[in-house]
Amino acid sequence: MPTAQQAIKAAILCQYITRSLLPITIFRYYRVAKIIYIEAGYNQEITIRIHENGEFIYV
């Protein structure tokens, strides 16, 4: 189950992505690693990982 911080950060980042008119192709929560993984863009050029504390990195 994602943390509240992860869920809020995911909602904010997804809003930024879709506001830029880019599609979100993958949105997944990995239970073992406890991260949210997002791929976006027409060629999946944006990859984001959101950690338990709400911090995110572009991969």
UniProtKB/TrEMBL annotation:
Positions of the DUF6888 domain: 1-56
Name this protein carries in UniProt: DUF6888 domain-containing protein
Organism: Hyella patelloides LEGE 07179
Top-level taxon of the source organism: Bacteria
Short name of any one Pfam family annotated for the protein: DUF6888
